[in-house]
C-alpha cells in the first residue's frame, strides 16, 4: 500500500480511469460481437448497419485513448473484411 499522499491519490485516479476505460472497451466489444452475429446472418442491411455502428464505437474508443489507434484499425479492418466476404456471396 502506498504511504505518500500523492501515491494514494494516484491509486484513486487509476481506479477511476480503469472503470472509465473498461466501460468503453466492453461497449466496443459488444458492438463488434453484434456486428459479427449480423454478418453471419442473411440480412445484408442489418449487417452493414451493425458494422457501421461497431466501427464508430471503435473510433470513439481510440480517440479517447482507451485503445490504441492501430488496435482499432486492425479490428475495423477484420470486421470490414468479414462484411465484404458476406456481401460477395
Summarize the structure.
With 89 residues, the chain is mainly alpha-helical.
Structure description:
The chain has 89 residues and is mostly helical. It has one domain (5-88): Ribosomal protein S20 (Methane Monooxygenase Hydroxylase, Chain G, domain 1). It is built from three helices and no strands. The protein is elongated and about 60 Å long. The N and C termini lie far apart (58 Å).
Largest sheet: none
Q: How large, in whole angstroms, is the Cα Rg?
A: 17 Å
Overall geometry: elongated
User: What is the distance, rounded to the nearest whole angstrom, between the alpha carbons of the first and last residues?
Assistant: 58 Å
Quaternary structure: single chain
Binned strand content:
under 5%
Helix share, percent = over 70%
The low-pLDDT segments are none
Looking at the structure, the CATH topology is Methane Monooxygenase Hydroxylase, Chain G, domain 1
From the helix content, strand content and strand pairing, which structural class follows? mainly alpha
Q: How many H/I helical runs?
A: 3
CATH superfamily: Ribosomal protein S20
Specify the CATH architecture.
Up-down Bundle
- At the first level of CATH, the class is Mainly Alpha
Mean pLDDT: 96
Number of E-state strands: 0
Q: What count of structural domains?
A: 1
